[in-house]
Amino acid sequence: MATISTHLRNFKEPTRDQLTQLFFSLPVDPQIEGPPGASANEKSGSSSSVQGAAGGGDMERMEISATLSLGVSGVEEPYPGKLYLIPPYLAFTSLDRKSVRFTIPLCTVRRVERLNARAGIYALSLLLWHNMKIVVQLTSLRPNADLFCALLRDSLKVELQRGQMKLVKPFSKTSFSEILLATASEDEKEAAAAREEDLRATETMYTGGLGLKFKFPGDARKLREASKTKLWTTYLKTHGRHLTLLRYPQCTRLVQVGLPNRLRGEMWETLSGSIYLRFSCPGDYERILEANTGRTSTSTEEIEKDLHRSLPEYSAYQSEEGINALRRVLQAYSFKNPETGYCQAMNIIAAAILIYMSEEQAFWLLEVICDRLLPGYYRFINSMPMVFAFRIIDCFFCMGPKVLFQVALAILKINGEQLLQIQDDGGFIHLMREYFASLGDSAHPNSSDPRARAITRFQELLLVSFREFAVITDETILSERRKFRSEVVHSIESFSKRSAIRNLKTLERFTKDQAGLVYDALFKAICIEPPPDVAQPPPSLLTTKDTAEERPETRIGLKTFRVFLSEIATWARSEKIVMNGFQDIVSGLNGVMFNDLMENIEWFFNLHDNNKDGYLTRGEILTLSESLLFIFKHEIGDAYLGAVSRFMSNAFEYGDALLPDNEQPQPQPQEENDESGEPTTPSIETNQPYMNLATFRMVVLADEILESFFETDFSSTFKLEPVPMMELPNSNSGLLGGLWSTITSDDSKKMFHKISDEVGKSFGKHSAVYRPAIGKFTHLEEPKARESLLTPTMRRTASRTSLNASNSSPDNSAYLTPATSFATDPSTHSSPSQIATDSLSAASLASSEFSPMPSMFEAAAHAAVMMERTPFAIDDAKDDDEDSDLDDSEDGDEDVMDEVDAFLEAHDTGLTEAERELAKDLINASPVK
Amino acid sequence: MTDAASGSQDRSVQVKLVLLGEAAVGKSSVVLRFVSNEFQANKEPTIGAAFLTQKCRLEDRVLRYEIWDTAGQERFHSLAPMYYRNAQAAVVVYDVTKASSLEKAKTWVKELQRQANPNIVIALAGNKIDLVQPSSSTPTSDSEPEEEADDATATPGEPSGENGENLRQVPRDEAEAYAQEAGLLFFETSAKTGEGVVEIFTEIAKKIPIEQILASSRGGASRPGAPGARNAGQEGGVNLEQNAAKDKDGCNC
């Protein structure tokens, strides 16, 4: 895969909207926009949402300050924060951005009422699915609040029209929490209604992970599954579940203590946000598999190799059932994301999550992990005993990628003393391995306090991670990334360059340095004009074993090549040219730059001999002349123009003279027909063989300028100069990028495009410097004696032509006139491109082997110094039946609560006592009539 | 060696060795066999690279192999130079039941010869010979070839209906001829049975220019810029080739 990759350089900082979406775990790709049409028009009037940023969707977005209260008194404190309307979602976060948050699809909102409260207080009561009530007090100015309500109403209407509301019920049946609560709510007041509904749910839809059948890793008793389940049941009862889950501090703490196995899958997809993808794309998973049944690709081959090597010690993956599930999930992902396809390590993560969730859930979660949650850091699954790894994954989904950094730092800190004494890599890996193996041991084995002795090293690790490294926030990570991005980009690029050059089949006659310059010029061209997306390789490629030659490689488009050529040869600035890879270019340039006189003439001849029969037709001669004019168009003075004119008349006269006798009568010398140099319509067929190489050579050599051109000048027009450090737009941080992100509406974007085009014209290299590439002959000189190889008549004609030409004005546009008027046939327009095509594609295809990986995996691989997992069998799971440890659940609860308390932090909501009172009142307030 | 001033008797010679080869040919398994004398039937794929060490004794010297076991998936190819840079030895592994893996091995060899340390000792290892040996190929019962293949090191998903020599896609002669031509050590191995594995590392150890390594590491690490670095080479001027020839089990691992 000799792909010259520029995507790192093209990295764009996420916009504010995207960051918000990311924060709320919303699908980044707006696959689930509101329907176009009516709703959009309806909305266009109110485009002035106060704090809202106009985003990708059709529906208006808006954020507003609000205070959130739970509809049940005494369960949670009211929290001030921000309420976001991001159709089709409603989201909230507390001011500290971590204590409280929710992301709720609008279709789960069943009723919204304005509450009747004190004057000046604007509050909404939202009744959600699960009969859960929340109260939001909009603490913004009245007009803002009114606007928000209007937008909310519209968005809800749209959701209703789309029929999304109907989807909630069947969807919720696929969630384990419904079963959990249905069985737990026996003695509740609303049990009657709820149970009827929920029990029906249990019959059908819910499909759990492989763990249900093949047991979950770990000892249920040791993991205190029953106690955890009980705590979660209580929490979910009052705080919503799956689509409607409200995340209060308690939620995060319960996650930190570890999710119960059966609930784990659902909570993962809820916390990570993959649930929204699954909800908005029902049936996609099945459809993808169906549409690609029987298809094979490099990815599917690679998947097959690894299927039996994914958590092989887990019994499900020793059975067909587990293997098949894993195969389907990985294949579905590779079909959906052909660019990423399959990368080793996905098998391990997929195998791990399939233990806890259904195939469809796993498919979407994999998508979220790979695309959104900064993939590549998931190696720890392999290094730690699985039970602990899953605990960290719990936190990862709940609190985001920063968890990985916090845990990693904590590991380093805890082992700091020993790490400092280590001499080499081997020692480091040994220490890590030992440490991971001992995670289940007591952190303070010698302590006199039994409670302290009970704290495991793993608990200690989490405590250190979340307490001492709480300073690591997503913002920290972002800013560090920003700081080092260019450095990383630079080193990766220079590495790519070195390997690209190393892997060239042949350097031809270039030196390494020169090849490097070619690479730089090409790279710059690709940056300026990204090549078109690589088309899907033909199916035949997919099924064959990839030999070096068949691997896809960098293909550049016409536009890119144009930029490239203009980098190295000034005459090429602003015209068009072709498709080619790095090797092609090196080989092609080789010909151009190192040929001698005769080779160059022959090369030029062959380029224009379209059918390779050894003869140029009249049309081809015209094309050739046009090519010469094109190359000469920026030369100062008219010497070159004259030379080409002479060339043409000589060529035609000579060619005509050589025509067989049975041909049409001699055509009139062209210059007699038309002063402007336009040739007569040839009286012979344009496609008839007309001139051979020997004649061509003779005609060229008849002219000093042309001779000199082919001997040295042409080759020397290709200048390999160091490409200056590229000032390319590599991120939004640049001036234009910064401007860009602030320009949001479509109209202004268009305007901006126009402006930037103009700006580009004014300072772009391609328009500013039309410097002559050769510049040797600046004055028109009278033809020299060598023309005597032609007859006196011919000679007279030739000089008259040149005189004609010399009369024309010397500016560029005039120079181009003959070229355009020669274009008797539209195909001749593309002559410059043909030059390049022929010359370069004549070279063999590159088969260079360097293959920069998609950055995500690169990161993974860089980070990964694999540590062999300490041999780890699935813990004894016989005792998995949760009822069996009910007897010690009392103690267990206490233990778990101890652990929960360990994570307890003061969550200062920042509300005054009075505000708190008000919020409480609102819970019981009646709606406005 | 007692009189070696810098204490060469305690200091083992560090040899950086890299494993390369197509995915699922058994690179990690070969290392695991060498380092821990173990075999795992379905070893998880290596991501990025793995690092292991193993000490072994050759004559009076202790070699400490620092083994970089690389990932085989094509996608990780571009990382390989990081691992083979400065490596003194490389083991390029292919799978005798998969012809394409030898082709891949050849491209690795070519890359190493072009870009790695010029003195690098390269060994070519055809792994999984347990699959093609007559002992495991008892074609008496047609009913359970599947199981046998699963049991062995067959790459899952490969057509494994047949046993024994039928599975072999790379003739020993062919690979050996290639190895000779390219100047490589050659072995056929089975990480599963252990056959041939230790031999690879022993033969590499014999071929490694240990004195050079010692000299350079002494000159570089313990006594930076010391002009007497050459001493090491003279003092330890043993002809390894000779010694190795008479002492078959120099490597104690």
Structure description:
The complex is a heterodimer of chains A (929) and B (253). Chain A is an alpha+beta fold and 929 residues long. Helix content of chain A is 52%, strand content 6%. Among the domains of chain A are: 207-400, Helicase, Ruva Protein, domain 3 (Orthogonal Bundle); 401-469, no CATH class; 512-722 and 773-841, no CATH class. In chain A, α8 crosses α41 (889-902). The two termini of chain A are 68 Å apart. Chain B has helices spanning 27-36, 80-84, 99-115, 145-151, 172-182, 197-207, 210-222, 229-235, 240-246; strands spanning 13-21, 49-58, 61-70, 89-95, 121-127, 185-188. Chain B is built from nine helices and six strands; from the N terminus they run βαββαβαβααβαααα. Chain A binds chain B through residues 1, 298, 302, 304-312, 343-345, 347-348, 379, 382, 424-426, 429, 495-496, 499, 502, 545-548, 849-854, 857-858, 860-869, and chain B through 23-24, 40-53, 66, 69, 71, 73-79, 81, 100, 103, 107, 111, 114-115, 155-158. β11 of chain A pairs parallel with β2 (49-58) of chain B, so a sheet runs across the interface. Chain A: Residues 258-480 form the Rab-GAP TBC domain. Chain A: Pfam families: RabGAP-TBC.
Mean pLDDT of chain A: 69
**Beta-strand content of chain A:** 5-15%
What string, H for helix and E for strand, traces the elements of chain B in order?
EHEEHEHEHHEHHHH
Give the strand tally of chain B: 6
Describe the protein's topology.
The complex is a heterodimer of chains A (929) and B (253).
Chain A: H1 16-23, H2 38-44, E1 62-70, E2 79-86, E3 89-94, E4 101-105, E5 109-114, E6 122-128, E7 132-138, H3 142-162, H4 164-172, H5 176-184, H6 191-203, H7 211-214, H8 225-239, E8 246-247, H9 249-257, H10 261-272, H11 274-280, H12 284-291, H13 298-307, H14 320-336, H15 346-354, H16 359-371, H17 380-383, H18 386-399, H19 402-414, H20 416-420, H21 425-437, H22 450-454, H23 457-468, H24 474-502, H25 512-528, H26 539-543, H27 558-568, H28 582-594, H29 597-608, E9 615-617, H30 618-632, H31 639-657, E10 689-692, H32 693-701, H33 704-717, H34 735-742, H35 746-763, H36 765-768, H37 792-807, H38 812-822, H39 831-841, H40 855-863, E11 865-866, H41 889-902, H42 913-924
Antiparallel strand pairs in A: 1-2, 1-7, 2-3, 3-4, 4-8, 5-6, 6-7, 9-10
Helix pairs in contact in A: 5-6, 8-9, 8-41, 9-18, 9-41, 10-16, 10-18, 11-16, 13-14, 14-15, 14-16, 15-16, 18-19, 19-23, 24-25, 25-27, 28-39, 29-32, 29-33, 29-39, 30-31, 30-38, 31-32, 31-37
Chain B: E1 13-21, H1 27-36, E2 49-58, E3 61-70, H2 80-84, E4 89-95, H3 99-115, E5 121-127, H4 145-151, H5 172-182, E6 185-188, H6 197-207, H7 210-222, H8 229-235, H9 240-246
Parallel strand pairs in B: 1-3, 1-4, 4-5, 5-6
Antiparallel strand pairs in B: 2-3
